[in-house]
């Protein structure tokens, strides 16, 4: 859901035609297997110029993992881009693990990565769940945040989560009925609970096939709401290997969502007063059917120093040409002026 934006993986990604105007991808400068608490090992990559503006990229999900798309918004001649696969996600180990995997631990991991890589301050860029995590992190380590670029921000309220799984707004009733059909009729009123319980079971024997069916149904529902373009890396129909990866991703995601991402006591909006008054830009589409536009409006109204730019027509698709262009323009402006002006760097 909000939560997507990890993509199917580098091989499938490079087989697609992405929007023009993105910067070229390149091999990583460095890759790290960084051990953190309770046996988790984070996969961390650095791209671009080692002497450039330092930026950390927070992927969606939770559980999605980094995608090459997310670093191609950055000019590699101007930025040192640090991409982190969060706990249980992408190439971090163990993949799909939910034990000792909560928002508080992700925040501690970000501090660990920053200190291990010798970064005093960094630009924090996040989309979807990544934007949510970016806001939480800015309150956790405000002195380390130079600026915030937030795409399609999500507020993990009970209402927003239920709206995705129960489709109370009736956005796509036939597609939702197909999604809900994976659960027994007496459990469709709590589809998230059913998915979380089912995906937590060890994927052995028949449960492995069940996990793939659940993952495919969830993925198709997500695509229906996301408005993904044919150019989006998320738009490739998953094969068996990808379905296993999706099942791991959705295990982590459902684990977070049933707990409202541990950001409801106090609610995330009530925590925004602790954020530093740094350049902050929110990009959101008013036709986003996964992350409500009202979330971006609410965050903007509570951050007097922020700017909100509507990128209409993009839905929840980070690869949509309008959203990709807006991300590139914002980052080019920041590289030139230290603020999120429009206009590409020469």
UniProtKB/TrEMBL annotation:
<keyword id="KW-0645">Protease</keyword>
<keyword id="KW-0378">Hydrolase</keyword>
<dbReference type="InterPro" id="IPR002410">
    <property type="entry name" value="Peptidase_S33"/>
</dbReference>
<dbReference type="GO" id="GO:0004177">
    <property type="term" value="F:aminopeptidase activity"/>
</dbReference>
<dbReference type="InterPro" id="IPR029058">
    <property type="entry name" value="AB_hydrolase_fold"/>
</dbReference>
<keyword id="KW-0031">Aminopeptidase</keyword>
<comment type="similarity">
    <text>Belongs to the peptidase S33 family.</text>
</comment>
<dbReference type="InterPro" id="IPR000073">
    <property type="entry name" value="AB_hydrolase_1"/>
</dbReference>
<dbReference type="InterPro" id="IPR005944">
    <property type="entry name" value="Pro_iminopeptidase"/>
</dbReference>
<feature type="domain" description="AB hydrolase-1">
    <location>
        <begin position="56"/>
        <end position="317"/>
    </location>
</feature>
<protein>
    <recommendedName>
        <fullName>Proline iminopeptidase</fullName>
        <ecNumber>3.4.11.5</ecNumber>
    </recommendedName>
</protein>
<keyword id="KW-0963">Cytoplasm</keyword>
<dbReference type="Pfam" id="PF00561">
    <property type="entry name" value="Abhydrolase_1"/>
</dbReference>
